[in-house]
Design a protein that fits this description.
single chain; Multidrug efflux transporter AcrB TolC docking domain, DN and DC subdomains; Multidrug efflux transporter AcrB transmembrane fold; 3 domains; two-stranded antiparallel ribbon; 12 helices; elongated
Length: 276
């Protein structure tokens, strides 16, 4: 018939579309008119008219054999020079990566039991390894930071017991922080855990401890004797009351600095919201 492959491709493209025919208004309603023309199967593909000769239509089935074939190959997965089947498990939004990885590994163990002999399931990439390394790195940094703060407090305060009392704020603050993260649904990632600043955590405690030590020294110098336990408790309450309000204001100002971060949206918001 003198037809080329290009003629067939153009005919398929022109006969595989829906057409709009406007709308009809009736009783205050609009009815859209649409002419469906998309190919719905092999039979409709065979009936596409390519040309007419002496009034006789030449259809696709007259010049080509039309049948279902294999899908064209677009890639391959290999391992050690051998072709393998590669599958990927995608995590839903809002899920915990470690929990999903663990459940996926358990599911793969069940799949392995149903496979024929000689077929094995191997995980080539597991995010749990990266997450565990990140958590280990953050945990190490937190421990080293806490120890460094204790040493610096001891050097600056000159009193080992005062340094320990001040450092006791760190585990208490960590407990409150982790509790808030669990209740608020904030995951323990690199940004949220890395935002823990021990210097800011012990800031208020250092002010109170320093004022207590100053009060103890002045009182002992005035009485020329060692203070009793009751006197220390009473003086501690007085010294704490003197600086508690400025300390709270200082902590409040530091907290207010992070509030604008919650206004971030998009990728920036997802990254920095856990830190705030």
């Amino acid at each position: 018939y003198g037809l080329t492959l290009r003629d067939l491709v153009e005919a398929i493209a022109h006969n595989n579309m829906n057409l709009g025919a406007g709308y009809i208004e009736r009783n205050g309603e609009q009815f859209l008119v649409r002419v469906p023309g998309q190919i719905v199967g092999l039979d409709s593909l065979r009936e596409i008219v390519l040309d007419r000769r002496d009034g006789v239509p030449i259809r696709m089935k007259d010049v080509a054999g039309i049948e279902e074939g294999q899908e064209l190959r677009t890639g391959a997965a290999t391992e050690n020079g051998r072709e393998v089947v590669l599958g990927t498990a995608f995590m839903l939004i809002g899920e915990n990566s470690r929990a999903v990885s663990q459940r996926t590994a358990e599911a793969l163990q069940g799949v392995q039991k149903s496979l024929p002999a000689g077929v094995k399931v191997n995980a080539v990439y597991d995010r749990t390894v990266l997450v565990d390394r990140t958590i280990a790195t953050v945990s190490k940094n937190l421990i080293e930071g806490a120890l460094l703060v204790i040493v610096v407090l001891f050097l600056l305060l000159g009193n080992f017991r005062a340094a320990l009392i001040t450092a006791a704020v760190i585990p208490l603050a960590m407990l409150m922080t982790v509790t808030g993260m669990v209740k608020g649904g904030v995951s323990g990632n690199l940004m949220s855990l890395g935002a823990l600043d021990f210097g800011l955590i012990v800031d208020g405690a250092v002010i109170i401890i320093e004022n207590c030590l100053r009060r103890f020294g002045e009182r002992q110098h005035e009485l020329q004797r060692v203070l009793s336990r009751e006197e220390r408790f009473e003086l501690t309450a007085v010294a704490t009351a003197e600086v508690i309000r400025p300390s709270l204001f200082g902590v409040g100002i530091i907290t207010a600095v992070y509030l604008p971060i919650f206004a971030l949206t998009g990728v920036e918001g997802k990254m920095f919201h856990p830190m705030a």
